[in-house]
Amino acid sequence: MPQDSLTITDNRTGRTYEVPVAEGTVRATDLRQIKVADDDFGLMTYDPAFMNTAACRSAITYIDGDRGILRYRGYPIEQLAERASFLEVAYLLMVGELPTRQQLDTWTDTVKYHTYVHTNITKFLEGFRYDAHPMGMLLGVVGALSTFYPDAKHIDDPANRELQRVRLLAKAPTIAAFAFRHSRGLPFVFPDNDLDYIANFVNMTFSIGGRHKPNKVLQRALEILLILHADHEQNCSTSAVRAVGSSHVDPFSAVSAGIAALYGPLHGGANEAVLAMLDEIGDKKNIPAFIKEVKGGGGRLMGFGHRVYKSYDPRAKLIKKVADDVFAQTGLNPKLEIALELERIALEDEYFAKRKLYPNVDFYSGLIYQAMGYPTEYFTVLFALGRMPGWLAQWEEMLLDKDQKIARPRQIYTGKDERPFVPIEKR
Length: 427
Ligand code: CMC
Fold this sequence. Notes:
Number of strands: 5
Oligomer: single chain
CATH architecture of the domain at 75-264: Orthogonal Bundle
Bound molecules: carboxymethyl coenzyme *A
Number of helices: 17
Strand content: 5-15%
């Protein structure tokens, strides 16, 4: 009997099966041979929310949730956050290796070449209400890019895929900045390709009448935040990009599905929810009552807990350092005091300790974004800008993976058995 196998005895039939174990997994389809009768469909696994199912093999991001480790293509997140630029990390994720100086220069030029959007997109944005949520705008406009670039549907052509991936990476900051300007009723500022990726985005967002005093410390802080968000293996939005992309739709449509998933308060929307929670708490003296309410089932401590990390999220540790740099420039955000105290009390509380609930990436990021001048509803847009290279890397990997097919989970049917149609007058 091979050692790397699992022996399963089906007590319904008394039959025994041998199933290979590879990379710590069994193939769910290997269970299909386990049947009680010839016409039986075969054994399935039931795993809502993919709690214990690997849906792909991936060489992009490694996470060890118990030890608080995060690596992109093998490089520790701490080293990338300290030493790399965002475009360097994007190259690493999307191409697979860190670029040489020459590769980085070419990559940077290529991205800059594609920063402009068709002017019709500005008209399109103007159609949104003044109070439209910027994530809704981003989601709509990124999806609409497929109509501007119908060639994007040729997903079997590697050169074409490359072009669309660069387009998305280059245009996302422009669209995000335009959404910001629209919310404020400000005229759009077009890309300035003499500036680097981050400086250009900040300029398009904040420049008024051509006047914007760049703050290099804040720009680097934003760059680090985007690096920390750049990929996180098979999270909800990445799984959405992969699932939608598996239908072989164009990448703009697939990524807009990722943006939609990220919009939700349990995912990217949590940073916005953290600020709302801190506002609701209002004062340090109200923290014990708030914690009591959470423990009693009256809501969640937003920015705490993670499906994968069962220890301190390494990104949250790095973000705390970034916060120090930012607040040294902008002055202290009064909500930081509440957040620090909330963290201290929660980490000492048995409820959170027992469930291994620690601060995640979103606990402090919102405070930093707010200090930089972004409104709360814009935080998730910044998360989306950071996650773009991850989505694009995962989309490409999914398409090249011979094991992948159109995503199509099974179900356990719990509805009625066959019954005859009842005419309306008899119901
Ligand atoms: N506050 C209070 N209790 C919590 C929290 C929280 N933030 N998170 C989980 N729990 C409890 C939950 O009630 C459950 O308790 P019990 O076993 O008594 O029923 C237990 O911990 C396990 O929770 P779960 O919902 O089964 O865990 P999950 O892995 O399905 O959820 C999560 C992960 C991130 C959705 C969840 O921790 C959460 O809702 N956190 C708050 C929202 C948040 O900060 N999201 C950002 C995630 S990080 C950024 C990103 O990846 O988008």
